[in-house]
Design goal:
The complex is a heterodimer of chains A (223) and B (476). With 223 residues, chain A is of the alpha/beta class. Chain A is 35% helix and 29% strand. The longest helix of chain B is centred in the last third of the chain and has 44 residues. With 476 residues, chain B is an alpha+beta fold. The chains are: A alpha/beta (223), B alpha+beta (476). Bound molecules: adenosine-5'-triphosphate (ATP) and magnesium ion.
Chain lengths: 223, 476
Amino acid sequence: MPAIIELRDVTKTYKLGDETLNAVDGISLSIQTGDFVAITGASGSGKTTLANIIGGLDRPTGGSVMVDGNDLSKLRDRKLSDYRNQHIGFVFQSFNLQGTQTALENVTLPLVFARVKSKARKQRATECLQAVGLGDRLKHKPSQLSGGQRQRVAIARALAVKPNIIIADEPTGNLDSQHGDEIIKLLRDLNKQGITLIIITHDMNIARQAGRIVQVRDGKVRA
Amino acid sequence: MRLVDYISLALRNITRRKLRSALTIFAIVIGATSVTIMLTIVFSAKGFINDQFEQNGTFQQVQVSPQTDINWGNGSGQNCNSSDCVKLTQALINKLAKLPHVIGIARQTQPYNFDGLFYGSKKLKLNQVVAYDANGIIDNHMLAGRDITQSDGNGVLTITSDYADGLGFKNNYQALIGKTVKLHTQGYYSGVGSDPVGRQQYMQTHCQNMGPGQNCELPSVQITGKVVGIADANGLTNSSGYTVRVPLSWARGMEENQDYGPARTSGDYCRNMPGPCMPPNVLTVTDELALNGYSSLIVKVDNATNAAAVAQNIRGTFKIGAADAETAIKQQLSVFNIVGIILGGLGGIALIVAAVGVINTMVMSILERTREIGVMRAVGARRSAISRLFTFEASLLGMAGGILGVLIGYGLTLIGNPILNHQLKGNNIGSSNILSLPIWLVITVIAGTTVIGMLAGLYPARKAAKLDPVEALHYE
Ligand SMILES: Nc1ncnc2c1ncn2[C@@H]1O[C@H](COP(=O)(O)OP(=O)(O)OP(=O)(O)O)[C@@H](O)[C@H]1O
Ligand SMILES: [Mg+2]
């Protein structure tokens, strides 16, 4: 099976005054279509930075990130944005929903940038919310939903444009274990449907469910 | 991202923060209103002048009065009574007629001693009786019957529609044509139609034995006239409202002093008579109009462009008042232009302040929405989309301000027009509703504020677009 993501010697360096900090320090990694990868490591080890680089949200300082033969590190903003829009679904620890908008409107957002028409958008967003078990919460604002429900809205939003890859950065971090388990189950189901899943987690119970664990330490992958 | 989505998202963000948006728009509204009014005034005034040049020859006229300090429209009815004014006598008129560019003169007078217009049992207060040459220089719009002609003499008159309405002939003017009305005046009236002999006898029998301080009341006099025409009160060129017009020859008679009493030569008569001498009474008729001159003249010039020069020439040569409509209107316009410049300046300043307000609002809004921008970027918004979104928002603020400003400006023209109409009518200028908002002005103002909003939005929009997605997502 061909690797859909191929990282080679990826580095991300932050300059803080005189000091330089290698948040990602020469990571090479390949992820296959349909993989379920768990990224673990201590706080500050560089997991989020790595995931953001894979998701096209951040650019590496060095190395290359090949996706479908394109090097993400060389793409212009326009193409990189389209890549995020078309291929990636992000799920964040803090949900990152728009508080003033309904669940349906939140899920609609990626479709707006995909130039999908209003009617088709609503239809697709409804589908996605139904898929995460929130078919009866379309008009609810995030503040009217529980933490687990909010994260499910976020997953529905990540699903909206039918991405190949879902990157979930500590998706259960703000949830109790019961709701956390529900979310992980939901993500695993998506992975079973063929979506490549990258989960960052501290929870070894979750990591163990993954087909592959990538341990990060000081910006490097531990062999 | 599709255009409708930009607009609906931008609209949504504006309406989300109603108070802040309203305050931001408020400044734009002030600017837009000022600019709208400025443009309306300046262009309406210009259009008004152009119209006037084409209209009913007013601009070909110079109004001449014995009073030297007159403006167009208020120069009539000022008879020369004091010694320091020059009388508008026939001799003077003959000289005026020979001036270059002068092609005709209408002499005007106002027999001022009538106070009532009676028809049957109806009695109306009479404001003014006017008379002028029926030589076509002063043109009236007749609603029924005909205007006074040069061959008309005593006992013929026209009244304005206001009077016809007052006499109960509204919508039925034709029925009043040929009817006889009475002009009422006090007993001391000594013009044509009075009874000098009867008056003299009445005074001898009733007033002789009166004590000091007592007034001798003479019985009032009514003279009759036949209505030959109803003039449109709104279309009068040289007089306004409630007006009765009589032929100039009759007016001359009205102003006559017909006196029956001891002959002025009685001194001679009694010289060789011994004892008490009773000279015989004789009738003396004095042509007061010829003596005192006309109250005003309308001098017609060959071309409207010469009116101002002719007026100046008359003022300089004869030391009498002369006014032309164009100069008067230009004076009025200069007021408009000053108002326009002040409003334009105010509007400009307001718009600059408004633009700063838009920048401020947008920068604040971007700070508040940093995380939201991060989310949009994460789900695939391009930099250009973020930039456009905020530019749209700022443009919409500008557009809303422009639309409201134009609406308020339009409302003000609705208020301003009646006021101006009143003023113009007072100056005997037959134009009305001169303030108008052409569609191009509406479009220009709205487009202008939209562009100002857009320009003000450029910097904040750029700032928003340049936000790093990762940092934006973690912004607290
Ligand atoms: N914008 C930045 N500027 C400077 N340093 C940064 C920046 N972003 C991240 N870092 C540093 O890079 C390192 C890796 O950060 P990262 O967020 O990837 O860690 P993490 O493994 O996700 O940690 P956690 O488990 O706490 O989320 C940290 O030491 C962090 O302080
Ligand atoms: Mg992290």
